[in-house]
Amino acid sequence: MSAFLLLLISTALVNNVVLVQFLGLCPAMGVSRKLDSALGMGMATTFVLTLAAAASWMLEHWLLVPFRLEFLRILTFILVIASVVQFTEMFIRKMSPLLYQSLGIYLPLITTNCAVLGIALLNAQREYGFFWSLAYAFGSALGFTLVLMIFAGLRERIALSRVPAAFAGAPIAFITISLLALAFMGFAGLNVQG
Amino acid sequence: MTAAVLSLTLLGLTLGLLLGIAGKRLAVEDNADVAEIEALLPGTNCGQCGYPGCAGAAAAIAEGAAAVTCCPPGGKAVAAAIAEKLGVCVDLSGMAGSEPQLALVAEDLCVGCCRCIRSCPTDAILGAPKQIHNVLKEACTGCAACIDECPTEAIQMAPVPVTLAHWVMPRPAPA
Amino acid sequence: MGLMERFFGFSWGVHPEDHKRPAADVPARHMPMPEHLYISLAQHLGAPALPAALVGQRVRKGELLAHPQGPVSAAIHAPTSGVIVAIGEIPAPHPSGLPVLAVTLAADGLDAWTDLEPCADPFALDPEEINHRVAQAGVVGMGGATFPSALKLSGSKKAGVATLILNGGECEPYLSCDDRLMRDAAADIVDGIRIMLHATGAREALVGIEENKPEAILSMREAAAAFGEVRVCPVPARYPMGSEKQLALVLTGKEIPAGRLPADIGVVVHNVGTAKAVSEAIRLGRPLITRLLTVNGSMVNAPGNILAPVGALVEDVLRFAGGLAGTPTRLVMGGPMMGLSLPHPRVPVVKGTSGILALSAAEAAESAPAPCIRCASCVRACPVGLLPLEMARHIAAEDLEGAVDLGLKDCIACGCCAYVCPARIPLVQYFGHAKGSLAAEERARMRTEATRKMAEARKTRLEAEAREKAEAAARRKAERAAKAALEKAKAEAEAASSQTASQDAPQTTPQAAQTEGSSAS
User: Fold this and answer.
1) Which fold does the domain B31-96 belong to in CATH?
2) pLDDT tens, C40-61?
3) Which positions in chain A touch C399 (Cβ < 8 Å)?
4) Is residue A188 packed enough to be buried (19+ CB in 10 Å), middle (13-18) or exposed (0-12)?
């Protein structure tokens, strides 16, 4: 149990998917203007990531490895991820049209979110078991959501502040997220094993 | 090789089938949006947005072909309401230039032809044949539909005058 | 009252230098009637009054000039006898300097009263009759909000208010008109309070007076000694003690919830000046046509309290007060914290004018705002417990929704935040702007709604017209057909009569006439 907890903490904070591994930067910049849509994006990504990790583990262990088709990994994973995203899109559109509108173009873009594919590939590479894969994906997604929400909160405050014209908009957002990345580097000192 | 082709085909077919079923189950009817947007628009069918009436504009907005700010008589309030309905962020500060307008009849030019009366979508123009017409300030939406109808160019648009009841304290200059 | 306030005193509000004396100690002076009076038709909260008199008409003092219009409005009366010379627009006593509709009255110097309807025993009157007479007299709240008093009285009666609170706080610096009124006319005020108790059915009246007015407290205590239901309660001198929410909190210990009325906690707050106006309206039948106002500020030669007619120009009042020592940096109507800055002194005194202040540069203390340092002084000062700095940030970024979420609608615009701000940020102006913009948005929304209704009405009208046209066309067609049938029948009959013997012919004509009659109906 404690091993699972450690895995969650280390994936969410120490090896944060956005700020340490630099995966999934596109939604991190794009859907972090409002706290509400950031939370929605975080939840959608968590859903997709966990589901995709489970599906890709099954593919890997029941199809690719037995038939020696490991060279098809990226192709099949993308196929599965795209389907899961498509399903998520339909689901959100039905359940919450408002969230659907606010996520806009970024919802289908989860398909090409490198975090989703990256986690699935990392799981395969590290040869994690099924539940480890799930925990790893879920922890990463938690880290993604956390960063997205912290960043959205910061950006909401920045929107109220008077930023020098040269820095207004995207530049100040980049500066902010780099400072946030520096702050997350501090977690590297966290002795997760001990 | 065969295994690879077969497995990919199977995988694609299975996922496609599943998505197809999900698509049927989770289908949403698109027209709800159009009707809701149309309810937010003024409903005068003045045509200033460039679409045939408010229903046309609502359809265009729902498709994304028209901006939520496309309704000049509705102004900021309508734009904000539609933006909220669609859940999109929109910069409304650019609409400041399109402040509400009123039609005014120049009494010395009006010949009392009644053409403008017929064109007004809110019945805001009063008058009878060969009598000088006048605009009801409270009913005029500033849609400018009457401007082109007037044969003597007696109708002009003017900004709505600021009165004591409508006065808004200016925003202080930032420090 | 919260625990903290019980143990450590009040945490809200500010304590500005009050500048009330020496003006408060000078006996009140009566201003002579100026030659012309400019009586604004929008002197109260709500819809402007509708003129009831005509240009050229001769009116006597106290005669009705304008009817109330709509549910929230008040009547307006002639402050003196004379001739109405104009009904038109004049500059409003307002920072914008926009025009307002007003009646211009040329005084004839006789100051002759119209026929009044005095009442010797107001307590024999029905509460509704009292409300009616108060409404007839055009009495509005004299504290500055100018809400029609009759409406407040009938509303309190309906809500079953138990406690009547009389606001003698007068927490605004410089102002002393309520103080002077309580010293000079305590008996009238107490009488008015008792009439208001009778009209509302409230059991007791609490008169809240700030501790910095010992003479007023003494005088009111003497006047109220004979009446157990009227209690005089000294309250700490602290701005904004005269705000109804704060005074109700201090006197009853109950806080008025956000977005609710004082009646919801069983109280109603009236100004002491309103009590005197009610007493005069009922006992003497006199409408509200004069008011006591404070002329003060370091640019005024002889500061003091002046009984001025409604409609007198600020210019005339200042001249009577002894003139100005120079050009004031700022001319204010009302108190320095919440009053309206006037663009020029050629605007009339209205029912809600509690004071006219001519402030020097040192008093106005204008300086350019500096950036906010987030010291939170404003948070501590806010009597309603809001976050002025955060609200102003949202408003500066045009995020009005965010400001409303932070409680903008509970802001009472007291000005404490701007007063304590070390960066001199005009916080109240931000809030005023936001409230105005929100009201404008609401108006635009209602306008769109009205437009839709008008467009629909036009549509139904056009449809009805088209239907009528079609029906008329059908009718004409039927008529034509009947006529043709008739002609045909006639022709046939003629042909028949010419062919056969003449005895058949007279019978066919009435038959044809009958068919014509039935087809036309």
Assistant:
1) 3-methyladenine DNA Glycosylase II; Chain A, domain 3 (1.10.15)
2) 999 999 899 999 999 999 999 9
3) 159-160
4) exposed
